[in-house]
Design brief:
Layout: H1 6-14, E1 17-28, H2 42-66, H3 68-99, E2 101-107, E3 111-116, E4 125-132, E5 137-152, E6 155-163, H4 167-189
Antiparallel strand pairs: 1-2, 1-4, 2-3, 3-6, 4-5, 5-6
Helix pairs in contact: 2-3
Length: 190
């Protein structure tokens, strides 16, 4: 059975394709990575906010019974805070969509090569957010620059090794690469 063969999983990780995907990244300091196994995902923040909302609702009900005026005041603060959080979510979504530039990349589940506008040094650490097209699937990972070369005027070709990618994101990326390769092979037969 091929699914149980670790060699087939390994081959899938290193299989490379040329593709167009949305890419956003930021340089991070190694100290920022201490204690983080994976880049933070928005869904983690939303889960935390949801848990806090449950606690606030429960405590507000008890507070209203003890001190109705203070309960009304705290409920108003909670609504105001929720309005601010909602606006920040909208702003973050818009910024995130603008920040992703569609780039031609050479990608595998272990890393990628792409052209960038800023000079990066070998060893630089990046927090990388990829949007796989079509499907708008977000993949979050860290990347270490393993090479950077001047490519054209004001452009550089960098190669990254991914690390800290969740198993789920890696599997989504592998599936995308396999589907894309299959599509490219079928297209070449036409």
């Amino acid at each position: 059975m091929e699914a149980d063969n670790p060699m087939s999983d390994d081959r899938r990780r290193f299989f490379r394709i040329d593709d167009h995907i949305g890419v956003s990244y930021q340089v991070v300091d190694e100290n920022e990575l201490i204690g983080q196994h994976h880049p933070p995902r928005q869904s983690d923040i939303f889960a935390l906010l949801n848990d806090l909302d449950k606690t606030i609702v429960q405590e507000l009900e008890e507070l209203k019974l003890r001190d109705p005026k203070l309960g009304v005041l705290m409920e108003a603060f909670d609504r105001k805070l929720n309005a601010v959080v909602n606006q920040l979510e909208i702003d973050n979504y818009l910024v995130q969509r603008i920040a992703h530039k569609v780039k031609q990349v050479n990608i595998s589940a272990c890393g990628m090569g792409l052209q960038v506008e800023e000079p990066l040094r070998e060893g630089d650490l990046l927090m990388v957010d990829l949007v796989l097209i079509p499907g708008n699937i977000n993949i979050f990972t860290y990347g270490r620059v393993i090479s950077s070369e001047a490519a054209a005027a004001e452009e550089y070709y960098i190669r990254l090794d991914f690390f800290g990618m969740s198993t789920t994101d890696q599997e989504l990326l592998i599936q995308h690469i396999v589907r894309r390769q299959s599509y490219l092979i079928r297209s070449s037969w036409s």
